Structure formats: structure tokens, C-alpha cells
UniProtKB/TrEMBL annotation:
Belongs to the methyltransferase superfamily. Keywords: Glycoprotein, Membrane, Methyltransferase, Signal-anchor, Transferase, Transmembrane, Transmembrane helix. Its main location: membrane. It is a single-pass membrane protein; Single-pass type II membrane protein. The keyword Methyltransferase applies. It is found in: Endomembrane system; Membrane. This is Methyltransferase. SUPFAM superfamilies: S-adenosyl-L-methionine-dependent methyltransferases.
Length: 612
């Protein structure tokens, strides 16, 4: 009887049980799909678990292949990846927009011939710039500040021309940089100590500096240990390879000149600027060059002049100029400084220091020719005028024009005045802080891919499309510096980057960058190629990246999968090793990461190349 009841009961429950089991299976399947789609709270747990996975190097043994890799069709009429040949060895130090032969065809007036003059389309080199024979990875920082391999920059002229000024010395297979300069032959440290007796360099008030006519970059090199980052520039002229030396030392620098067009920086960018015997004619063109320094100098910032005409009573014979001439020049500089609302704070020996007032409420200038442009940051390829950039308006004499900045490092993540004042379209204080969180997350992901990021392995770093500077801020370390490039076609955020205490410049990636070959260890390209899809050829941008990237240097691309597939196909013909990876949030995110490493090779006299 019992068995009959049990059998009957089993038969009665069986269909219900089956439906319940099927229903539960469907429910949990749909729940799992919902969570994996990114809309469920469970996704946060999955992402958190991913964060704790084992770190891997650039080319890990684990399978990090993207789910959206480029796969060539079996039957395709599309040609295979183009193989780029090495350029002739005569182009080892090629700088496309500052080539000497092209420069000499332009007027010398106002240094126009030393400005950027890029080749037309039919004259562009579409080959790979070779490294010189014997090229060696630079010394790690801080040793690189004092030593550079001769094979990397094989030019000895400065060791002779500047021998008594301690710029650079040749010793065996290396150059040694004693830290001297024309106006500080006994070393930059003592010179900076004298400046620091007037300028608050030590307390974080001074973070960004500009060196106009930098030589081999020793002023900027020695300011770094005081947590001041300097943008140094000099022309490509008879002082052979001076900017190349600076970059090889691990010091921020680029090829540039005060000529007829604006400097590629926003207004109110620098806390301090100097001319150390830079030989810029400050009184020429009605003071146009000094007015340009004023444009980029922050209210409350300092300008240092060491060299002619300062201390002319001592040096007039050495300079082969008359007392009358030099006295008149200094008087004119003093008058110009007053018209700019600068106050002289110091003059002793070879050094004079002025401070720009924090606002124009207490200016004593009688009259001024103010610039009519409504945007003092719109400067890419724009001609300079002999006019004064007005101070931003203030309501009281105690207010800092443009906004007061916190001391560094607090100012790195503090909301910049341009953001707080609503001067950047679409950027609020809240979105700025969210951007910082996002870039901390991105950089952590990069460090899991490449454990050497953040070490001395990558000293000179470039961000091709810097946005608000979040990448550089998340990486901030004394072991590295970042050149934050804001493309001229992107939203103008460079002023925000400088307010954070970072450096950078404007650029158009359809043209060559103002630097020598092999000057960056790592390049970051976040949506840079998406920005230029309809503006110029990817091939030209990638060849320029290859030119400025050091052998065995790395590139990190972050972009849509379609764009990265195009980039990867070109890169495979450039002697780059590449690897596509998923977004840190998983394979369902269409944005991907492409990592590339440039192979080591050097040029050969017969136009071939060698991996040595």
C-alpha cells in the first residue's frame, strides 16, 4: 500500500518539479546575462575581481587577445600591410618642420627662418628614420641628467664652443654635463639658490617654468629636484643639437623660437620665466617679445633676466657695445616692464628679477595698447602683435586675476580656476573629478599590462591627446615627466593642464612635432586617431610617432576597435610588435587597448638596416 501511495505521489509531482527546475534555470541564465551586460550590480563584483588578477608585462603569457582583433578575409582584394623601408642614414637627425635647407629659403627678419616650416605632401618622407650606429638606451634618471652616450648624439661642437662655460664635456664614449651655463658657469644650483632668495621656489608656489633659449637645458634639469618642471626651448641653429642634448638628458624641451608667431602655450601658463643670455631682442618691435612672455606668465609670476644689458657697466667692453647703447636698452626694458604691470624686485650682479602683479588694480602704466583678440589662448600659427594681453577682471585688489592656485602638489588634483569659472565648455567641477577617477583606473590597468610604467624605464612620456591632463596626473612621479599635447582641433584644455602644475603645448598631428628623432620613451594616444580620421592619413601620424619614439620604446593606444584595427595594420609594417587587449571593464566594451613596442635597429651606410 505504501509503495502504491509513493508511486502515485511521485507521478503527481513529476511535471511540477520539471517546470520548477526549468523555470529556475531560465531565471538564473537571464540574471547572469543581465549582470554581464554591465547593467546589473554583479558587474561591479566581476570588475573588482578582475582588478586582483596577476600583473603581466607588455607581452604576457596569458591570453589577453581582444575579441575584436583584425582578421583579414580569406578572399580579399585589399592589399597586404605596407612594409616601410628605412630612410637613408643622412636623415638620422631629421626634423621635418625645422630642416636647415628649407629654413634658409625664408626671411631672417624676426627669426622667421627658424620657425616651423613643414614640408608639403609631395615632399614628406614616408620611411623609417634610422638610429645612428651604436645607439644605446639612455642612462636612467637621475644619472641621465649628467651623462649622455656620445653614440646617441654624436656632436662635439658645443664641447669646444662652450668649453669655458661648462655646458658639456666629452669624456671617452660619453658626454658629461657639469651643470654650467653661460650666466652660471660654476653650476646651476648656486644660480637657482640666488633666485630662490627672491622667488618662493621651495614652498610649492612655483611649479611651472619657461626657459627661453635654454642651451642644453641645465636650468630646467636642476630645477626638477626642487619640484619645478620647466618647458625649455631653443632653435635648431649653429648651437648644434642643444635641444637634443636636453631631451637625451631626460629634461623637457622642444625646438622653438620667439619669432613672428605666438608661442604654443595658453595665457597665464607659467609661474616663472627666464632669459639667461638668450640674446632675444626684448626691446625690438615695440617690445613684442616681452609682451608675449607677459601673455604666458601667470599673474603673480616672475621673470628673470641674466645677461645683456644687465650689469652693462661691467661687461660693455666684453659685449663690444657702448655704455650709452646698453643703458638705453635697459631703460627701455624697465619702461616696458612697467607698462606690463611688472614690479622690479631684485637687481644684483648679473641678475634682475621682476614680478608680474596679481591684477591690474594697482598698475601705474599711463597708457597701454591692449590686444583686441577675445581669446588669448587661440595662438596656433597666429601672428604676434605688439600689444598687451589684458588681465582677467577682478572685483578687488586682493583677488588674483584668473584665479588663485593652490601650492603644488595640492594643485594637481584641486579644481582648476578655468574649470571652476566655467571657462571650458562641457567641463564642470564634478565632471573634472570624475575624469580624474577614470584616469586613475586607466593608468592602473596600463600598469597591470606593463609593470615598468612608472619606473625610470620610461622617463620622457608624451600624451598625444591630453584632454584635462588626467593621464599625466595619475602617473605623476619624480621618475618621469609628460609632454601633454592638446591638438589644435580638440577642445582647448591646455590652460587647465598648466593650472594643475603640468606642462604641454598645442600641436597639429598632421604635421611633424618640434623635436628631434628618438626623444620619447613612451607615447600615449587616447582617441588621437579618432580625432584625425578625416583630417590626414594615419600612416603619416604613425611615421611621425616612430620618428620621435626611441628604439624599444612603447606606445599605448586607446580607441575604438575599428580605428585600432587600421592602426595595427599599418604598425605591422613599421617594425613594431603589437598586441590588442580588451578594455579593463571587459570584452563587451567596444573601446580597446593596443600596445606596441618599437624594435631596436640602426641605419647602415648602404641604405639598409641592422638589429646589431
Amino acid at each position: 500500500m505504501a509503495s502504491k501511495l509513493h508511486l502515485s505521489a511521485s507521478r503527481g509531482r513529476s511535471p511540477v518539479s520539471i517546470f520548477i527546475v526549468i523555470g529556475l534555470c531560465c531565471f538564473f541564465y537571464l540574471l547572469g546575462v543581465w549582470q554581464r551586460s554591465g547593467f546589473g550590480k554583479g558587474d561591479g563584483y566581476a570588475i573588482e575581481m578582475n582588478k586582483h588578477q596577476t600583473n603581466c608585462n607588455v607581452f604576457p603569457s596569458l591570453n589577453f587577445e581582444s575579441h575584436h582583433n583584425f582578421v583579414a578575409p580569406l578572399e580579399s582584394s585589399e592589399p597586404k600591410a605596407k612594409i616601410f623601408k628605412p630612410c637613408d642614414v643622412k636623415y638620422t637627425d631629421y626634423t621635418p618642420c625645422q630642416e636647415q635647407d628649407r629654413a634658409m629659403s625664408f626671411p631672417r627678419e624676426n627669426m622667421i627662418y627658424r620657425e616651423r616650416h613643414c614640408p608639403p605632401e609631395d615632399e614628406k618622407l614616408r620611411c623609417l628614420i634610422p638610429a645612428p650606429k651604436g645607439y644605446t638606451s639612455p642612462f636612467p634618471w637621475p644619472k641621465s641628467r649628467d651623462y649622455v652616450y656620445y653614440a646617441n648624439v654624436p656632436f662635439k661642437s658645443l664641447t669646444v664652443e662652450k668649453a669655458n662655460q661648462n655646458w658639456v664635456q666629452y669624456q671617452g664614449n660619453v658626454f658629461k654635463f657639469p651643470g654650467g651655463g653661460t650666466m652660471f658657469p660654476h653650476g646651476a644650483d648656486a644660480y637657482i639658490d640666488e633666485l630662490a632668495s627672491v622667488i618662493p621656489i621651495a614652498d610649492g608656489s612655483i611649479r611651472t617654468a619657461l626657459d627661453t633659449g635654454c642651451g642644453v637645458g641645465s636650468w630646467g634639469a636642476y630645477l626638477l629636484k626642487r619640484n619645478v618642471v620647466t618647458m625649455s626651448f631653443a632653435p635648431r641653429d649653429n648651437h648644434e643639437a642643444q635641444v637634443q642634448f636636453a631631451l637625451e638628458r631626460g629634461v623637457p624641451a622642444y625646438i622653438g623660437v620667439l619669432g613672428s608667431i605666438h608661442l604654443p602655450y595658453p595665457s597665464r601658463a607659467f609661474d616663472m620665466a627666464q632669459c639667461s643670455r638668450c640674446l632675444i631682442p626684448w626691446t625690438a618691435n615695440d617690445g613684442m617679445y616681452l609682451m608675449e612672455v607677459d601673455r604666458v606668465l601667470r599673474p603673480g609670476g616672475y621673470w628673470i633676466l641674466s645677461g645683456p644689458p644687465i650689469n652693462w657697466k661691467t661687461y660693455y667692453r666684453t659685449w663690444n657695445r657702448t655704455k650709452v647703447d646698453l643703458k638705453a636698452e635697459q631703460t627701455k626694458i624697465e619702461d616696458l616692464a612697467e607698462s606690463l604691470c611688472w614690479e622690479k624686485k631684485y637687481e644684483k650682479g648679473d641678475i634682475a628679477i621682476w614680478r608680474k602683479k596679481e591684477n591690474d588694480k594697482s598698475c601705474k602704466r599711463k597708457s597701454a595698447n591692449f590686444c583686441q583678440s577675445s581669446d588669448a589662448d587661440d595662438v596656433w600659427y597666429k601672428k604676434m602683435d605688439s600689444c598687451i594681453t589684458p588681465f582677467p577682471k577682478v572685483k578687488s585688489e586682493t583677488q588674483v586675476a584668473g584665479g588663485e592656485l593652490k601650492k603644488f602638489p595640492t594643485r594637481l588634483f584641486d579644481v582648476p580656476p578655468r574649470v571652476a569659472n566655467g571657462e571650458v565648455p562641457g567641463v564642470t567641477s564634478e565632471s573634472y573629478e570624475e575624469d580624474n577617477k577614470l584616469w586613475k583606473k586607466h593608468v592602473n590597468a596600463y600598469k597591470r599590462i606593463n609593470r615598468l610604467l612608472g619606473t625610470t624605464r620610461y622617463r620622457n612620456i608624451m600624451d598625444m591627446n591630453a584632454g584635462l591632463g588626467g593621464f599625466a596626473a595619475a602617473l605623476d612621479s619624480s621618475k618621469l615627466w609628460v609632454m601633454n599635447v592638446v591638438p589644435n582641433t580638440a577642445e582647448n584644455t591646455l590652460g587647465v593642464i598648466y593650472e594643475r602644475g603640468l606642462i604641454g603645448m598645442y600641436h597639429d598631428w598632421c604635421e611633424g612635432f618640434s623635436t628631434y628623432p628618438r626623444t620619447y620613451d613612451l607615447i600615449h594616444a587616447n582617441k588621437a586617431f579618432d580625432l584625425y580620421q578625416d583630417k590626414c592619413e594615419f600612416e603619416d601620424i604613425l611615421l611621425e610617432m616612430d620618428r620621435i619614439l626611441r628604439p624599444e620604446g612603447s606606445v599605448i593606444f586607446r580607441d575604438g576597435v575599428e580605428v585600432l584595427n587600421k592602426v595595427m595594420k599599418i604598425a605591422r609594417g613599421m617594425r613594431w610588435e603589437t598586441k590588442m587587449m580588451d578594455h579593463e571593464d571587459g570584452p563587451l566594451v567596444p573601446e580597446k587597448i593596443l600596445v606596441a613596442v618599437k624594435q631596436y635597429w640602426v641605419g647602415a651606410a648602404n641604405g639598409t638596416s641592422s638589429a646589431e
